[in-house]
Structures are given as C-alpha cells and as structure tokens.
C-alpha cells in the first residue's frame, strides 16, 4: 500500500505557487487553480499527493515508454552512481556506459549513422545538429551554406535556436527568434490540406514547395531541412504516403542535410526503435532523439550522425584545432547506464512487437469509436501517438470559439475520471506508456468517448456550440 500521508498537499501547493516557475504555463489559470502534484507511480499509472490514481495516457510528456517505477531501472541508476556517478567526456575521456550505449544505438539506427553525440534533451540535440552542420560546411569552405528550412507546426524545442527551428507560431508569441537563419515550408497536415486536393496531389505540392524554397534561397546557401517523422506537438501530423522518401531525395539533390527529429518517434512509439528508415523508408543524415531513450527516467539525448558528417568534422587539422562543442553532461555515465538498461528492458519485453499489436489496436479503436462523434473532425496518428481534433462543423472544419476551451474541457473531464490526456488548443493528444494492455486501451478510449459526449452536452447548454 502506498502511503500518501507524508505529502502535505496544501503546503506543497503554496510553496509551488510561490517559488516554482513552471514551463509552458498559462499563469492566469495556474495562479487561480494551482498545481497537480504527482508523487508516486507504477506501470502505466501515476498518483497525486492525495492518492488519486490516474491512467497516464500521455506517458508524462511522450516519455515513459517502459512504464513507471521500474525496479531494474532504479537499480541500474543506483549501481552506476556507486561505481562512478560522473565523469567528463571532453577530449579523450569517457566512461564504459557511454561507450556501450553508443555501440548499441548505432546497431539500432539506419546503417549510414555510425556516430553518437550526447546531450541532455531534445532542444540541445537539435541545437547541436545545427552547430555540427554549420561546422561541417565551414570546414569545407562553404561558409554561405547555413540557412535552415523547417516546417510550420514542427516542434524542435525551446532553447533560443531550437525554438527558432520550431514552426508552431503560438509558441513564438512574446519572444524573438534567431534572425536570418530559418525558413518555413508547409506542415504536412493532410486533414487541413487545400480544398480539392487529393492526398497524392498534396504530397506533390509539399515536395515541390520544398524544392522551390531551396531554389529561392539558393542551394549554395541551404544547409539543412529539419522534420519530425510524425510532427508531435504540432498536432500529430502523419504526412501523406511517400512524403519522407521524396523529401529526402530533394535534400540529396541539393546537398541539404536531412535532420530527422525523432525525439518522440524513436524507441518504440510507432513500433520500431527508430522510425525514419523502418517506418518511413528514408535515411536521414542526423537523427536527434531523447525522451524514450531513457523512458524519461533521467535526462539524456543523442545525435546519431552519418559517416559523411563525422568524417569531415573529425578529420585531424592543425594541432590544437578543435570541435569546440559539448556539454558538462555529454555522455553522463548514469544517464547512459539508464539508457542501456531501458533498451535492454524494451528488447526483453519485445516492446516494439507489443506496440505493433496493442498500439495498432489503440489507433484502430480511437478511429472507430471517436471519429463519428459530432464534435470530432479528425482522429489521426499511428500506434501510441494519436490526436483528436475537435471542430464546430465536421463539413467545413470550422473551429469552436476559443472560449469553449474544448481541448482543456475534454482533458479535465478525463482527468476527473482518472485518465490523463493532453489538451493542445482545440485538440487532444495521447501518447501512453508502451506497456499498455488491451483493457487499459479500452479504458482510455471509453473515458475519452464519455468525456467528449459530456462536453458536447455542456457546450450546447452554454450556447457555445
Ligand atoms: N523535438 C521534438 C519532436 C519534441 O517533441 C520535443 C519536446 N517535446 C523536443 C524536440 C524538445 O525536447 P526537450 O524538451 O527535451 O528539449
């Protein structure tokens, strides 16, 4: 039995409000309603300080792939901490877990990616990719080849540079972006594609748009294109069939590096360890990943880098010339030990095959049971990466008024019923731990169904729909 009496919820709330500044927070609501303090966990469930139990339909934040409170993970962390809890990996230094994890990651990654560089989060990983690519072209004397192309509604992180890559315009409000660096092309949003276009025509449009963008900037000035295999925080956008392969061909044609941001899609969420090649059939020049790499148990990110890039960056130059990029916690031994254990557990549990079955069931159940609801415009995604987009009108796809707070309302109804799903403006996102069983899938789908129905009734009563 878990003991929740040790948590002084009111005191924690007061201290939290006073001193703990939360990221991505609507302060008006937060200051009025306070926080929800998660204190304990097991499997696919988390508990707040008062002992309320929630089935976590979002795995924290697309993170906890193997589920919560895994004893072996705790033990791996403790053991490495007792051996050597920290050492730098600058210069010639390293530790056994960093070496072993690198070899393991390379064995799982597309065959052209044979080198690993570590950081502590997805944003850092994407920042690192930009710096590596700039360094690469500088070394080749192509000093003008620096511009980056990303997509509307792509999410790449929250540091200055990663947020400049991010194409979710809502996230830019009130901030500045890195000047003269990033260019945007359209999101592969099949649901909201231009009227009258087939999915195949939309794919042609997107591929052509990227090529025209490269030509307009000048191929000699374009260094890289960043894309998530399935855009997550931008609304779980599954691109039209064939998109990634064709995008990769355009990039290759103009010597533009393709960075596949697999911060969410790697480590089993779509049923494969990496999605770029195994799910979508293309070979990127760099994969950035984090989150599921350690199931979120400890911060760790990795850049998987092609031989082509590594060979130029690492070619010996004059003595003393360096690749002056890296972090105190690059290759952190405890993080790497946890990453290794996480992959070992995933392989032992055959978690990717589990996702291929139960994740597919989740996808199918959501599409089957939720799509027909009057307020639902689209149910999309793949396996354990899903989104429900709510609309005022299914035909016109017109949105509900902002004051309907549709995403928040549906998430709140589900939370009251003990299921966590994520609100994102007029959408709701789900990315549960990959260990979910069929009954837990049914619970999420049924709870969401009831939550949406209740909200529909409420909106009618309030005259908002
Ligand atoms: N890329 C993607 C696709 C992400 O979803 C995220 C985080 N949600 C990031 C990058 C940034 O990762 P972090 O928050 O660890 O910096």
TrEMBL record:
Pfam families named among the record's database cross-references: Aminotran_3
NCBIfam families: PRK07036.1
Molecular function in Gene Ontology: pyridoxal phosphate binding; transaminase activity
Family statement: Belongs to the class-III pyridoxal-phosphate-dependent aminotransferase family.
Organism this protein belongs to: Dasania phycosphaerae
Position of the signal peptide: none
Record protein name field: Aminotransferase
Cofactors, names only: pyridoxal 5'-phosphate
Keywords: Aminotransferase, Pyridoxal phosphate, Transferase
């Amino acid at each position: 039995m878990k003991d929740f009496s040790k948590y002084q919820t009111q005191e924690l709330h007061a201290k939290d409000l006073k001193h703990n500044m939360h990221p991505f927070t609507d302060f008006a609501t937060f200051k009025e309603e306070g926080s929800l303090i998660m204190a304990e966990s097991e499997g696919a469930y988390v508990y707040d300080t008062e002992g309320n139990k929630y089935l976590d339909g979002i795995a924290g934040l697309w993170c906890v792939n193997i589920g919560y409170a895994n004893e072996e993970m705790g033990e791996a962390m403790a053991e490495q901490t007792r051996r050597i809890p920290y050492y730098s990996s600058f210069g010639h230094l390293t530790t056994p877990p960093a070496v072993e994890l690198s070899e393991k990651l390379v064995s799982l990654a597309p065959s052209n990616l044979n080198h690993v560089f570590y950081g502590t989060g997805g944003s850092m990983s994407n920042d690192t990719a930009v710096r590596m690519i700039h360094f690469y072209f500088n070394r080749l004397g192509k000093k003008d080849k620096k511009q980056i192309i990303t997509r509307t509604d792509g999410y790449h992180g929250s540091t200055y540079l990663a947020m400049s890559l991010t194409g979710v315009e809502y996230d830019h409000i009130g901030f500045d972006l890195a000047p003269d660096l990033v260019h945007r092309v359209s999101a592969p949003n099949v649901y909201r594609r231009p009227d009258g276009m087939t999915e195949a025509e939309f794919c042609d449009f997107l591929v052509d748009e990227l090529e025209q963008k490269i030509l307009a900037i000048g191929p000699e000035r374009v260094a890289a294109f960043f894309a998530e295999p399935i855009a997550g925080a931008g609304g779980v956008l599954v691109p039209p069939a064939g998109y990634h392969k064709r995008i990769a061909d355009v990039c290759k044609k103009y010597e533009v590096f393709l960075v596949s941001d697999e911060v969410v899609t790697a480590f089993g969420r779509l049923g494969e360890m990496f999605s770029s090649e195994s799910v979508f059939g293309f070979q990127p020049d760099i994969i950035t990943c984090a989150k599921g790499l350690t199931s979120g148990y400890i911060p760790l990110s990795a850049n998987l880098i092609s031989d082509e890039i590594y060979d130029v960056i690492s070619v010996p130059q004059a003595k003393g010339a360096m690749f002056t990029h890296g972090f105190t916690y690059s290759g952190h031994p405890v993080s790497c030990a946890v990453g290794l254990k996480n992959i070992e557990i995933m392989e032992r549990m055959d978690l990717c095959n589990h996702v291929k079955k139960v994740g597919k069931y989740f996808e199918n159940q959501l599409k089957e049971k939720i799509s027909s609801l009057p307020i639902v415009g689209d149910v999309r995604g793949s396996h354990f990466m899903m989104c429900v987009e709510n609309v005022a009108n299914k035909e016109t796809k017109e949105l509900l008024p902002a004051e309907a707070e549709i995403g928040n309302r549906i998430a709140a109804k589900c939370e009251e019923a003990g299921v966590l799903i994520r609100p994102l403006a007029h959408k709701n996102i789900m990315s549960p731990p990959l260990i979910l069983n069929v009954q837990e899938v049914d619970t999420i789908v049924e709870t969401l169904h009831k939550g949406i129905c209740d909200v529909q009734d409420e909106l009618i009563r309030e005259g908002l729909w």
